[in-house]
Amino acid sequence: MSNNEHSNYKNLQVIFEDNHIIVINKRPGDIVQGDKTSDTPLSEVVKEYIKHKYNKPGNVYLGVVHRLDRPTSGIVLFAKTSKALPRLNKLFADKVAKKTYWAIVKQIPEKTSDTLIHWLKRNPKQNKSYAHKNEVPESKKAILEYRLIKKMDRYALLEIDLQTGRHHQIRSQLSGIGSPIKGDLKYGFDRSNANGSIHLHARRLEFVHPVKKETITLEAPLPNDTLWNACN
User: Fold this and answer.
1) What is the DSSP letter of 10?
2) Could you tell me which of 143, 119, 115 has the C-alpha nearest to residue 133?
3) Which residues carry out catalysis?
4) CATH architecture assigned to 4-229
């Protein structure tokens, strides 16, 4: 999936910004940090945005605090100062930052709300994590809570709160209960979305400001497509 059309800083969706942090609504297809593709990462686009907005000479400092999978959309938080970055890193490492996701699935789970516990084993060659009901060698415990928010004609909207932060955790665990995310071929959905996205959105983020020490709660608008629009 190419993100060349996304790599203009003028197209950025900035949700919140102050002297220490900047929060972006990532579009599906954007990569947060550089990878083996030659596509411009979101981190570089944000630097360009800051450089132009504040007419900054030289290099712009930007710290990557966390990531979202490439086909996923939603909230991404960056640090604008070297003072803010280690504090934000600690919040995420200590699971103090609260992340809430929305996912559209085809098979409605048996329970309208539940806590899912799996042991995820990552296969680096496939860039995929497999969900096991019991612990297996080299696996990591994964916990999430979900609740059914809305039933649509052929799909259902789930709200998900992560208690752990594992590789492809939501995608793998929902697939593990027979409810893969719409468009997620890698995890068992029957066909891909036309734009290569999956219907997984980092909807809300609650965290303590690294300098002001006040609680901030932010929400990312949903992508503009027929199915997401039905969720508003």
Assistant:
1) G
2) 119
3) 69
4) 2-Layer Sandwich (3.30)
